[in-house]
Every structure is written in structure tokens, then in C-alpha cells.
Specification:
disordered N terminus, 527 residues, Immunoglobulin-like, alpha/beta, seven-stranded parallel sheet, Rossmann fold, 18 strands, Alpha-Beta Plaits, globular
């Protein structure tokens, strides 16, 4: 009897084990997808705020758009009746995200209202974010990158992002309440709202840590708006801006990305009337099934779902979207920017070293794009994740100076104020923007084009000449970019000037060379 009871217990344990294995296998077999629909209910009500409508009126954009209309409840109910539960809804993309088995994919494809099914579970790339503060003895004590972008210009014009609302989409905000650099956000009630798409029930967004990446958004916030409690040290440009925050990505060892959360956060912020977005997340590869990884050639601004959403944000909604270019510059299997930095309308931000050359890790623009990426760059030792928020703060000051700037004008003025303009490249874009120059452009939009400035010139080297010598101040360190086309860099290096000149030798692969001194940008064209 006891023997039989023992066998029964063992048998039950075995059955439970196999049930667990079966359940785990079924869960693993499910993967997240976008299910996109063919049409919408045109008589539905668009859920957007008065602030959103006001922004659009000011920008000359239609107040209500087709992409503002909600997803059809009838379609969602039909999916639910077939055993498919929507995780997220996207009015912009006209679809829902859901976990599907292979059998469910076949069934869903059979619905007449379904346009397309797209896998979405990819890896999000986050950067290491240890803080770096330069030591200097100037009266104006700021982080090094603040000096690099010419913070004095904004300070003299009393620009600090006041009145500008910024949306931050990131992986978590652990430690915000304990950060001396962010104390002013809480004491002045300048965090207007926060949504956690990973853990919607979470109420303590700043003090509960769930993953190793929960601090990432905190560091991003610091680089946008951070300052010391005594106002003597400044880490970000937009110290008086206000914020909406969204947590859209799970951290952990694999940094598993959730693109559907990102899209939902963008739609939420747009509906509230937020025009300026910082997102230091990028999607490249890491599908559960490696066969469904993004391929480098798909970083074309049109393929990924987040790219499609970013296009809607910039082309239809008038939003200014600032995105980290990516940290795959040293990855021989990738090297290029991640999505949505590949979208033409977004401002993709790379990272430079203290001289102004591209940091090795900073992702480069693909050579198959017919537009330049990244757009601009700035100093960051620890990833483009901390370069993008600097530029976000920069843009906030621009919008404070003129709230009616369109996103195209913001992007144009930002690039024209930068250190390499007009000779941008796919390593650092048009270089590092400058506050004084951008304010000059905002105040004098019809001025003589910057490419006609006295400190920009070209040198044509005849085909029969093997070398060119360029006069430069003695002892100066100059940057040199050797390019195979007007935009695509083969190599970069720095030269310390001796004998008041530098010499460049002809190379059959190099068609152009950009030389950047303290006072000039020189484009050498090898005929």
C-alpha cells in the first residue's frame, strides 16, 4: 500500500514536471507581433488634448488626422474571440501587438481586416552611463560637454528650457528622488506625469529598482536638466523644462526591447501636446529567432515599426524627436546606427571625444542612405545615450527662444550651427552645435547662408598634384576626416601642427578630406 502511494506521488511529480515543460515550451513558442489592420471606423472620436490641437494650429498642421482615430474595437473583439489578446494598441500604425503561436499566425492571417503581421521583439541597446564631470576653474562651472556646445550663449540669453515640455522614453528612473542633480524637478513639480509600460501597477517609480537598467533614464534626465543644488554646477541645458516620462523597456542581461511600448509612449505624449522627445534607446538585433533579426540594410528609415512611428511623429505630428545614434561603432558585424535613428526626420546624435573626433563605439551612418546620419554629435565618454539628451536640452532652449519653430527648422538650424557645416559626414554628422550660432540663425533666418562664411573654404587639388599643404596656427590640434564620397568617412585622425602647416598626401581611395581647425572648416577635393 505504501509502495503504491509512493509510486502515485512519484507519478504525479513526473506528470507535473512534463506539464511544466509543456507549458514552458508553449510559452517559448509564442512571440510578440504587430497585427496591422486595413482600415478604421471613420466616425470614431480622436482622443487628443487641447494643447495638442493648439500646437498643430500654431504649426499649420491639421488639428485632427486619420492617425489620431482609435483602432477598431470590432477588430480587437474578433481577435479576442479567437484567443488572441492585444498587449498594446497603436492608432498611428492602426494595429495591435500580441503574443502569437505559429498556429495563431495562420488563423489571424485569414481575417479579411488584417493587413500585415510583423515580429517586434528585438534587443534595445543601452549605454553605460557613469557620470563624467570635467575639472575646470572657470567662473562658469559646467560639465565639459556644456562648454563644448557653448552654453554661455544660452545663459547670456537667459534660456534654460523654461516653458518647454520634454518627453523622455527610456528604461527606468530609479534614483530620481535621491539625485541631488534632479532635486529641483520634484521640489518644483516639473515632472507632470509618468507611465510604466513594463509594470503598469507600479506606483513608486523612483525608489523601486527592478532591473540593472532602471537607472538609465535617471542619467538621461540628468544630462537634459541636471544641476547642483547650489546652482554652481550644470549638467544639462534645460534646467527649467518640465517633463513627461515613460518606461518602455525591460532591462536585465539581454536588454530585451519592447517596440510596441515605445510606440504607445510616443502616441501618449503626442496626445498630451508634447513636441520634444528624447529617446536613448535603439533597436538593432536580438530576436528570439535569430532568423528574424534586423539586418543592417534594414536601417533605412522605413522598415522597422518604430521607424514607421517616428516618421509619423516627425512628418505628420510636427514632433521633434532626438534619438541616440547607437553604440555599435566597434561591432564589425553591425557598426551602423540603430532604428529609429535611421529615420530621416529625427535628429540622430553621435558621440565625440574631447578633440571632436568620433568615439570608437559611436555608430556610423549607412552608406546606402541618401541623407546624412547621424545629424550632429557631442562629447560623451559613456555612450550616445548621454549625447542625445545634451542635444535635447539644446533644442529645448531653441524652442524657448522661438516656440513656433517647426521641427524642420529646428533640425536645419541645429545642423547649420554645427562645427563641420556644410561638410558633414557619417561619423559625426555636421559636428557639434553651438548656442551662439543657433541663436543667430533663429533671430536672423534670412541671413547669408553659413556655407558662405569666411571660415569655410574648399581647396581643389589638380589630378597631377600628389600633395597639398595647408597653413594652420602652430601647435594647434586639427581634426582630419578622409572620405570616399562627400559624406562617407574612410578614416579619421588628429594632427598637431608643426611648422605652421599640415601636409596631406593623395590616396586613390580618398576623394575628399575635411580639415577642421579652431577657425576654419576646409574641404579638400582631390580631382
Amino acid at each position: 500500500m505504501n509502495y503504491r502511494i509512493g509510486m502515485t506521488r512519484i507519478g504525479q511529480i513526473i506528470i507535473n514536471f512534463f506539464l511544466l515543460v509543456l507549458f514552458s515550451f508553449q510559452s517559448y513558442a509564442q512571440q510578440k507581433y504587430w497585427i496591422l489592420f486595413k482600415d478604421k471606423e471613420l466616425n470614431a472620436q480622436a482622443a487628443i488634448s487641447d494643447k495638442c490641437k493648439e500646437n498643430r494650429r500654431n504649426l499649420g498642421i491639421a488639428e485632427t488626422q486619420f492617425t489620431d482615430l482609435p483602432v477598431s474595437n470590432q477588430y480587437i473583439s474578433t481577435l479576442q474571440n479567437s484567443g488572441v489578446s492585444a498587449v498594446r494598441q497603436s492608432k498611428w500604425l492602426n494595429g495591435v501587438s500580441a503574443f502569437l503561436t505559429h498556429q495563431q499566425i495562420s488563423a489571424v492571417k485569414g481575417f479579411t481586416f488584417v493587413k500585415e503581421i510583423i515580429p517586434i521583439e528585438t534587443k534595445a541597446i543601452l549605454a553605460k552611463t557613469n557620470r563624467y564631470v570635467a575639472n575646470n576653474d572657470d567662473d562658469l562651472r559646467v560639465d565639459y560637454v556644456m562648454k563644448q556646445v557653448g552654453i554661455e550663449g544660452f545663459l547670456q540669453a537667459d534660456l534654460n528650457g523654461k516653458g518647454v515640455t520634454i518627453g523622455v522614453i527610456d528604461a527606468g528612473y530609479y534614483g530620481v528622488s535621491d539625485s541631488p542633480a534632479l532635486g529641483h524637478l520634484l521640489s518644483e513639480n516639473r515632472i507632470l506625469g509618468i507611465k510604466d509600460y513594463i509594470n503598469p501597477k507600479k506606483t513608486n517609480h523612483f525608489d523601486e529598482r527592478e532591473t540593472s537598467s532602471d537607472f538609465h533614464g535617471t542619467e538621461v534626465l540628468t544630462a537634459i536638466t541636471g544641476k547642483s543644488h547650489d546652482d554652481k554646477l550644470q549638467f544639462g541645458l534645460a534646467t527649467q523644462a518640465q517633463f513627461y516620462l515613460a518606461r518602455t523597456d525591460t532591462g536585465g542581461r539581454e536588454f530585451r526591447g519592447e517596440e510596441d511600448n515605445w510606440v504607445s509612449a510616443m502616441e501618449w505624449m503626442d496626445s498630451l501636446g508634447v513636441r520634444l522627445i528624447n529617446t536613448s534607446l535603439g533597436y538593432a538585433k536580438g530576436f528570439s529567432n535569430p532568423k528574424e533579426d534586423y539586418k543592417p540594410e534594414q536601417m533605412n528609415g522605413n522598415t522597422s515599426v518604430v521607424a514607421k512611428a517616428a516618421k509619423i511623429a516627425t512628418e505628420e505630428k510636427g514632433m521633434v524627436v532626438v534619438v541616440s545614434a547607437g553604440n555599435e561603432g566597434d561591432d564589425r558585424d553591425w557598426r551602423i546606427i540603430s532604428t529609429p535613428a535611421d529615420v530621416e526626420g529625427v535628429i540622430a546624435v553621435g558621440a565625440t571625444n574631447d578633440i571632436g573626433l568620433k568615439m570608437g563605439y559611436s555608430s556610423i551612418g549607412p552608406d546606402f542612405l541618401d541623407y546624412l546620419k547621424p545629424n550632429v554629435s557631442c562629447f560623451s565618454l559613456y555612450g550616445t545615450s548621454l549625447a542625445a539628451p545634451v542635444i535635447t536640452g539644446f533644442v529645448a532652449c531653441m524652442l524657448q527662444a522661438n516656440p513656433k519653430l517647426t521641427n524642420q527648422e529646428v533640425k536645419s538650424y541645429l545642423q547649420k550651427s554645427s562645427s563641420l557645416y556644410p561638410f558633414g559626414n557619417n561619423f559625426i554628422g555636421f559636428g557639434v552645435p553651438n548656442a551662439n550660432k543657433v541663436l543667430d540663425l533663429i533671430q536672423n533666418p534670412n541671413r547669408v547662408p553659413l556655407e558662405s562664411r569666411n571660415n569655410v573654404r574648399t581647396i581643389d587639388v589638380p589630378e597631377n598634384e600628389r600633395m597639398v599643404e595647408i597653413g594652420v596656427k602652430e601647435g594647434e590640434v586639427v581634426m582630419v576626416f578622409h572620405k570616399k564620397t562627400p559624406f562617407h568617412v574612410l578614416s579619421q585622425d588628429a594632427h598637431k601642427v608643426r611648422n605652421s602647416s599640415i601636409s596631406l598626401k593623395r590616396n586613390s581611395q580618398v576623394k575628399r578630406t575635411t580639415v577642421v581647425t579652431r577657425e576654419e572648416v576646409i574641404e579638400v577635393i582631390w580631382k
